[in-house]
Amino acid sequence: MVATGISVGRVGKRGFPTTKRPKVQKTKKTSKHRVVKDIVEEAIGIAPYEARLMDLIEMSEKRALRFAKKRLGSLTRAKKKLRAVEDLKRRIKRRQQERLNEQQKLQGATATTTTQK
């Protein structure tokens, strides 16, 4: 028997020759994308489930991970979101601390000027 080119693929999956569809490739993340994402995050804020995640992180990281997994569908996405929310929380805390330090400096400066007069 001569091969005709009809049987294609592995032994269990024989069939007609087909052309593969082109794969959808992920686009490269650029700095422009990051800037746009930051602006949107700043304008809109955080989603309600992200706020709940912040609260759950304080109580139990395992519980927060389970909550994120249920909302996002997969463990990998949940871990990534958890890291992002922890980072966001850290940035918010740092900003609050900087504002507090600035206020204390201003109060200290006004107190010294009033005592000098």
From TrEMBL:
Biological process, per Gene Ontology: translation
Superkingdom of the source species: Eukaryota
Pfam families referenced in this protein's UniProt entry, alphabetically: Ribosomal_L36e (PF01158)
Record field: compositional bias (Polar residues): 103-117
Compositional bias annotation for Basic residues: 20-30
Transmembrane residue ranges: none
GO CC term, one of those recorded: ribonucleoprotein complex
Keyword list, A-Z: Ribonucleoprotein, Ribosomal protein
Annotated region (Disordered), positions in chain: 1-30, 94-117
A molecular function GO annotation: structural constituent of ribosome
UniProt similarity note: Belongs to the eukaryotic ribosomal protein eL36 family.
PANTHER family for the chain: 60S RIBOSOMAL PROTEIN L36
Name of the protein this chain belongs to: 60S ribosomal protein L36
Organism: Naegleria fowleri
